[in-house]
Amino acid sequence: MKQRILTIALAGFGLAVASPLWAAEKVELTTRVSGVVDVVLVKLGQRVKKGAVLLRLDRTILQARLDEAAAEHSRAQADEADAKRDLERAQELFDRTVSSTTELDAAALRYARAQAALSTARARRVIAQKNVNDAELKAPFDGVVSAVPGGPGTVVAADCQPKSLVILEPGRP
After folding, report:
1. Do the domain assignments include residue 89?
2. How would you class 150 by CB atoms within 10 Å of its CB: exposed for 0-12, middle for 13-18, buried for 19 or more?
3. How far apart are CA 160 and CA 17, in angstroms?
4. Residues 151, 165: one domain?
5. Residue 38 sits in which domain range?
6. Could you give the CA distance from residue 32 to residue 35 in angstroms, rounded to a whole number?
7. In terms of C-beta density within 10 A (0-12 exposed, 13-18 middle, 19 or more buried), how is residue 11 classed?
8. Can you tell me the distance from the alpha carbon of 84 to that of 89, in angstroms, rounded to the nearest whole number?
9. Is 43 left (phi over 0), alpha (psi -120 to 50) or beta?
10. Residues 75 and 100 in one domain
11. CA angle (8, 12, 15) in 5-degree steps
12. Element containing residue 114 per DSSP (H, E)
């Protein structure tokens, strides 16, 4: 990164203020998730605004993982509700001295395990949704596209040293 000095002349006052402006000459961008580039939405020299979608990965596998996580979450919710009902029944029977402490403890343990499974499923669903969202590479700042080394079909392996897909320069006024 280079440090640049930005000088602003205040019109009419004849004053100049110097302040440091940290800016990288070029920023190499890639996705956080692995996949195959499906479509590139920018061209060399194009100006982009912060948040603009630059390219998208094929989402087929990521969407399938999200669907799988959503199904797992639904199943875990049903299991947790069932375990809660069993615990309430076991507590009622225990209170009426019809069942033993062992049966109540077993129901409480099953409910605790169901709650843990539900929390795990919820977390997996959140991660899967984040991965689907991260299949879109978005501009982190206003800038100009200075290179597009990643075209459709480019394989991105996010776990290793991922290939740069878009190189962006800070926009010049």
Report:
1. yes
2. buried
3. 44
4. yes
5. 26-58+136-173
6. 10
7. exposed
8. 9
9. beta
10. yes
11. 40
12. helix 101-133
**Tokens read off for 130:** 């984040």
CATH of the domain at 109: 1.10.287
Question: For residue 33, which of 125, 155, 121, 116 has the smallest C-alpha distance?
Answer: 155
pLDDT along the chain (173 residues), means of 10: 33 35 74 95 95 97 98 98 97 93 96 98 98 96 94 90 89 62
Structure-token pair, residue 138: 């978005």
Residues 91 and 37 in one domain: no
* Residues 63 and 126 reside in one and the same domain: yes
- Would the pTM of this model clear 0.90, i.e. be above it? no
Q: How far is CA 51 from the centre of its chain?
A: 14
